[in-house]
Design goal:
13 helices, about 280 residues, two-stranded antiparallel ribbon, mainly alpha
Length: about 280
C-alpha cells in the first residue's frame, strides 16, 4: 500500500487530487469542532455520552461533531438518506424512472438536483429534531428567545449539512473520488483517539478494584457511568482482533466477484481451427 501511494505521489495529476482531498478533509474536520451558537457544548457532550443507544451510533458516524453540536453535526446522513429515498422513488414513480433510464446525462443531473433539494429538507427535519432534544434537556444558553435561537441553530445545522454534501461532490470531481464515502470514513476515524483513550481509562479504573459500596458512594449517575466505563484488560486484544477482522471482511466482500463461465465456439478457417477456449466474465 505504501508503495502504491508513493507511486501515485510521483504523478502530478494524482498528487493534485490527493492534496485537494487532504485539504477538503481538513476543512471538514475544522467544521466538526466549531459548535453552533447558543448551546452548552460541554454539558451536551456529557448528556450524549450518558444516553447511548441511537445517539452513540450517530456519534460514531459523525465523529465528535454530533456530541458537541458542531456546524457539521449532521454530517453526510441527510445526503445518504436522501439518496436512498430517491433511489426507491425511481422504482415507485414512473416519471423518475424514465428520467433516470431515458434522460441520459440531463436526466442524471435532474436526479442529482432533486437529491440535493431532498437533502436540505431532511437536514431541516433532523436539525429541528436535534434542537428539540437539546432544548428538552435545558442546554440552550444565551439571551435570545428560544424560538429565535432555535431558528439560528436549525439553519446552522442545515447549512453545515449542505456544505458537507457540496464538499463530498468536490472530492468526487477534483479529488480521489467517492467523496461522501471519504468524508464518512474521516468522521469515523476521528473517533479512534477518544476510543483508545476511553479503553485506557477503563482498564485503569478496572485496576482500581473498587467495591460496589465504594462505587455506590459516588452517586447514582457517576456510579453508573463508572461501571459502564470499566474495561477488562483481556477485552483489549479481542477488540483489536475484531476491528481487524471486520476490516478484512469488508475488503473481501468489496473485492469479491462472481465469475460467469464463457465458452467460445470453434470455427474453421481454411485448414486451421480457431476458438474453443473457455474464459469467464468477472461480475462484482
Amino acid at each position: 500500500m505504501i508503495e502504491t501511494i508513493r507511486n501515485a505521489w510521483k504523478i502530478p495529476e494524482l498528487r493534485k487530487k490527493i492534496l485537494f482531498t487532504v485539504f477538503a478533509l481538513l476543512v471538514f474536520r475544522l467544521g466538526s469542532v466549531v459548535p453552533v451558537p447558543f448551546i452548552d457544548s460541554d454539558a451536551l457532550s456529557q448528556t450524549m455520552n450518558s444516553m447511548g443507544g441511537i445517539f452513540s451510533l450517530l456519534g460514531a458516524m459523525n465523529g465528535t461533531a454530533f456530541s458537541i453540536a458542531a456546524v457539521f453535526a449532521l454530517g453526510v446522513q441527510p445526503y445518504i438518506n436522501s439518496s436512498i429515498i430517491i433511489q426507491l422513488l425511481t422504482v415507485a414513480i414512473p416519471a423518475l424512472e424514465r428520467m433516470q433510464k431515458e434522460g441520459g446525462e440531463e436526466g442524471r443531473k435532474k436526479i442529482a438536483a432533486i437529491t440535493r433539494y431532498t437533502t436540505v429538507g431532511i437536514a431541516l427535519l433532523q436539525g429541528f429534531g436535534y434542537f428539540t432534544l437539546i432544548n428538552a434537556n435545558g442546554l440552550i444558553s444565551g439571551d435570545l428567545p428560544t424560538w429565535l435561537a432555535g431558528i439560528i441553530i436549525v439553519l446552522s445545522f442545515t447549512a453545515g449539512s449542505a456544505f458537507v454534501m457540496w464538499l463530498g461532490e468536490q472530492i468526487t470531481e477534483f479529488g480521489i473520488g467517492n467523496g461522501i464515502s471519504v468524508i464518512l470514513f474521516a468522521g469515523i476515524v476521528s473517533r479512534f483517539p477518544s476510543m483508545v483513550q476511553g479503553m485506557v481509562t477503563g482498564v485503569q479504573r478496572w485496576a482500581m478494584h473498587l467495591s460496589d459500596s465504594e462505587i455506590s458512594a459516588m452517586g447514582t449517575t457517576q456510579g453508573e457511568a463508572f461501571r459502564n466505563s470499566l474495561v477488562h484488560p483481556a477485552m483489549i486484544p479481542l477488540i483489536v482482533i475484531g476491528v481487524l477482522a471486520l476490516g478484512v471482511f469488508i475488503v473481501f466482500i468489496n473485492d469479491s466477484e462472481r465469475r460467469i463461465p464463457v465458452q467460445y465456439a470453434k470455427r474453421v478457417v481454411g485448414r486451421k481451427m480457431y476458438g474453443g477456449q473457455s474464459s469467464h466474465i468477472p461480475m462484482k
